[in-house]
């Protein structure tokens, strides 16, 4: 068996785990019956009257810091808010974070007389969005 195979498998598993998008929530109030994500409005400024349901944090998959990653993170906030019955998300912010594992390519050779190794890394990032799932009370 190739001695580098377990190492390559472990590295591939670590990369897949790091590439996963995630959502976390902390309940601040009572959940309501679920609605569809398309019914959830994203607010940058708080509406006049609302009730807080949960604090939400969502991240995109690993990529290169694109607008699509930002949209994906915000869409994950909307989906989680909808599952809690919130009809709004008060967006607190969006930022870029470096994942714990970077994407890299390498190659090399090792022999009795020494070794040579070459490698190249590709900078990757995740977009993270934070918000509060809210239920907007219409006047």
The amount of beta strand, in percent, is 35-45%
Q: How are the strands of the biggest sheet laid out side by side? A: 1-3-7-4-2
SSE topology string: HEEEHEEEE
CATH architectural category: 2-Layer Sandwich
Report the CATH C-level class. Answer: Alpha Beta
Task: Give me some keywords for this one.
139 residues; 5-stranded mixed sheet; Translation Initiation Factor IF3; 2 helices; 7 strands; alpha+beta
Q: Could you describe the 3D structure shown?
A:
Residues 1-21 form the signal peptide. It is a single chain. The chain is of the alpha+beta class and 139 residues long. The protein has one domain: 2-Layer Sandwich (Translation Initiation Factor IF3), CATH 3.30.110. Helix content is 23%, strand content 41%. It contains two helices and seven strands, in the order H-E-E-E-H-E-E-E-E. Strands 1-3-7-4-2 form a five-stranded mixed beta sheet. The longest helix has 17 residues, at 67-83. The model is unreliable at 9-18 (pLDDT under 50).
């Amino acid at each position: 068996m190739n001695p580098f195979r377990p190492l390559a498998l472990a590295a591939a598993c670590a990369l897949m785990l790091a590439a996963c998008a995630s959502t976390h929530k902390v309940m601040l109030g009572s959940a309501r019956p679920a609605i569809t994500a398309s019914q959830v409005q994203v607010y940058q400024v708080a509406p006049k009257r609302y009730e807080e349901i949960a604090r939400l944090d969502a991240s995109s998959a690993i990529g290169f810091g694109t607008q699509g990653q930002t949209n994906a993170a915000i869409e994950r906030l909307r989906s989680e808010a909808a599952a809690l019955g919130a009809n709004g998300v008060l967006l607190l912010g969006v930022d870029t974070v470096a994942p714990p594992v970077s994407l890299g390519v390498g190659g090399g050779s090792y022999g009795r007389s020494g070794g040579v190794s070459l490698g190249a890394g590709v900078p990757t990032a995740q977009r993270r969005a934070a918000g509060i799932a809210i239920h907007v009370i219409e006047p």
